[in-house]
Amino acid sequence: MLESSRYYKLAERINSKLDLREALEQVVVAISEEIVRCDAVGIYLPKPDGTFQGYIGKPDRLNGLMLDQLNVDPKNDMLAQEIITFKKSIYIPDTSVDQRPDPKIVQFFQIKSLLALPITYEEEIFGIVYLFDYGIAMNLSIEEIQTVEAYVNMAAVVIRNTKIFAGFQNIEKELMLAKKELQLNLLTPVEREVYELKQQGLNKTEIAKHLQKSLNTVKNQWKNVREKLGL
Questions:
Q1: pLDDT at position 128, please?
Q2: Average pLDDT for residues 147-166, to the nearest whole number?
Q3: How would residue 108 be classed by pLDDT, with cut points 50, 70 and 90?
Q4: In degrees to the nearest 10, what's the CA dihedral of 62, 157, 9, 116?
Q5: Can you give the pLDDT at residue 14?
């Protein structure tokens, strides 16, 4: 079983990472170190078209292909379908007697055994984690599978928190844009035109020439703009 101290140390390292890729890389490394018999660990994240694309893994290149070149399509992969539907881990100790994984993938990578786990949080699926070997079956114990599940749960929290943080950033950006628009509404049409020309990099002399106004008029209008916008 996973030692509590090791788990909490990993949690601390992950929580110190603001970048999603860096945080998930910590999870991948932890799994690969815990389950040393597996030849590959990969995290696949959902795409808008319903497929799952390789995001980060160890190694990052498989049979000459970069991980992000690999896609799992639930329409062709019964294992992925089952993972998404039931949101439970599935361990296949012998792929030769189980037809659920995509046979093309199994043959291409010569996969002998496979562990697939959903990355879920409150019934929402954020991705799929795959562990497999090339030649010798992993022969995973229940305890080892539970350990990997603990790490994958950590990945789910990381992705969820990243989404929440991104949502807050979007809200903050929208509020800033709304505030700016409200401020711009304080300007008269002419003042707004002066402001927009200034934003384009024109100086007061160039603005006066463009608007066919005197330089003093433009200076006064720019003064009003600065006062209203707090520039």
A1: 96
A2: 82
A3: confident
A4: -40
A5: 62
Superfamily of domain 4-168: GAF domain (3.30.450.40)
Can you read off the two tokens belonging to residue 50? 């319903």
- Cα dihedral 81, 147, 36, 114, rounded to 10, equals -20
How many other C-beta atoms lie within 10 A of the C-beta of residue 4?
8
The closest alpha carbon to 152, from 78, 59, 42, 52, belongs to 42
Task: Please confirm whether the linkage preceding 48 is cis (ω < 30° from 0).
Answer: no
Task: Say if residue 7's pLDDT is above 60.
Answer: no
pTM: 0.68
Dihedral angle computed from the Cα positions of residues 74, 52, 27 and 153, in that order, rounded to the nearest 10 degrees: -50
Give the CA distances from residue 184 to residues 17, 23, 36, 204, in Å, rounded to whole numbers and listed in that order: 38, 41, 61, 19
